[in-house]
Amino acid sequence: MTEFELIEHIFLKLQVDSALANGHQHSIEKGIGDDAAVMALPLGARLVSCIDTLVQGRHFSADWVEINKLAFAIGYKAVAVNVSDLAAMGAVPHSILLALALPERLANEQWLTEFAKGLFHACQLFGVTLIGGDTTRNESLILSVSAQGLLAANTPAVYRSGAQIGDKVYVSGTIGDAAYALQHLDNAIGTELAHRLHMPTPRIQLGAALANSGATAMIDISDGLYQDLGHICQQSGVSMRLNLEHLPTSKPLSRVDLPERLLCQLTGGDDYELAFTLPAHIELPSVYTQVTCIGEVIACGSGTNNGTDDMMTSHPILFYQNHAVTAQNPAPFTTLPTLTGYQHFTG
Questions:
Q1: Distance separating alpha carbons of residues 170 and 296, to the nearest angstrom
Q2: Cβ neighbours of 34 (radius 10 Å)
Q3: Where are the alpha helices (DSSP H) in the chain?
Q4: How many angstroms separate the CA atoms of 47 and 116, rounded?
Q5: Which helix (H) or strand (E) holds 150?
Q6: Which residues of the chain have pLDDT under 50?
Q7: Helices (H) and strands (E) in the chain, counts
């Protein structure tokens, strides 16, 4: 199958159907089939853009049998992880561009059709349209998706840098499920939670509602709760008190021993839930998504520093049953764990 046959026979038809379903046929002046796409933006709207790359053996299995099995999920997740970044800014998703580096063994109608079905299923669920991209041949599978979203003229973007002392810290959904599934695909709980790894749900409505409700900082949890909240702490110049017993836990994950469960929740990543801060006097917006308060924003140096020497470091501080988790008092862990999330440039 040539590049142009791939575009025409698989992606172009599904793109037209997707654009009609999402009501974008009027705002997209030119989509797939030209040198570039052209979009008409509403008056006063701002364009929000992000990009994410998924690499075989790094972000999903290197095993060809698994890749064949997960074609639909790979297409779906490539869209979902980008839409999640838009949601973390409070933006409404609009469109995506896809760059696909495709191994010869996957350049067949069966795999590409399943992949495209997953991709366009996500597009229809999340209100985005594929408007163009690029394809090339490569020994391994690499996907890059660039996503565009819109912020209305009167909707503020929510950055990582706005958290204020006294704000409450919240997280959506449940966390740790995807990390556990990734580590335990061969046991019953891991199998039960596999959909959380392969088919995450970006919190679009919640992100948009929070942008209009006064959220001060927000991030999507892709690399682990502790590490991602650390980005908010660093960019806002604050610390946080996190109450471990308040971390929202799914029923399957609640059956896992507490120390292992907490490590999945704190460092695992791939949740694509929203973590955010909100002034204490502001009520949560009414959105059909579970939201849990897990702590509060505090000044740097006002808590215990999890065993480090620098009391002024901006990072979350863990508490369990009202006691700081330290090297001297590591409960509920046996010893204080290394609290690093996913590292894109290691291993």
A1: 8
A2: 9
A3: 3-6, 13-22, 64-69, 71-89, 109-126, 177-183, 188-192, 194-198, 204-211, 225-236, 251-254, 258-267
A4: 26
A5: strand 142-151
A6: 305, 307-312, 345, 347
A7: 12, 13
The Cα 59–Cα 178 span in angstroms is 12
pLDDT digits (tens, 9 = 90+) for 298-313: 998 765 545 444 444 6
**Tokens standing for residue 40:** 């008409």
Of 203, 159, 177, 175, nearest in space to 294 by CA: 175
**Radius of gyration, alpha carbons of the chain:** 21
Residue pair 241/184 in contact by the 8 Å Cβ criterion:
no
The residue whose two tokens read 């009027």 is 26
Its pTM stands at 0.89
Residue 273 CB-density burial (10 A; 0-12 exposed, 13-18 middle, 19+ buried): buried
Measured between alpha carbons, how far apart are the two ends of the chain, in Å?
A: 35
Residue pointed to by tokens 């040198």? 35
Question: Three-class SS of residue 172?
Answer: strand
CA–CA gap between residue 15 and residue 341 (Å, rounded): 36
Contacts of 79 (CB under 8 A, 6+ apart): 96, 119, 122, 123, 126, 128, 145, 147
Q: Please, what's the largest Cα pairwise distance for the chain?
A: 63
Cα separation values, 43 from 90, 136, 152, Å: 18, 37, 8
Cα–Cα distances (Å) from 75 to 46, 78, 84, 129, in that order, read 27, 5, 15, 14
Helix (H, G, I), strand (E, B) or coil at 82: helix
Phi/psi of residue 324, nearest 5 degrees: -65, 140
Question: Closest Cα to residue 114, out of 73, 149, 77?
Answer: 73
Question: pLDDT (tens digit, 9 = 90+) per residue, 181-238?
Answer: 999 988 999 999 999 999 999 999 999 999 999 999 999 999 999 999 999 999 999 9
- Is there a contact between 153 and 21 (Cβ–Cβ < 8 Å)? no
Residue with tokens 């973590």: 275
43 burial (CB, 10 Å; 0-12 / 13-18 / 19+) is exposed
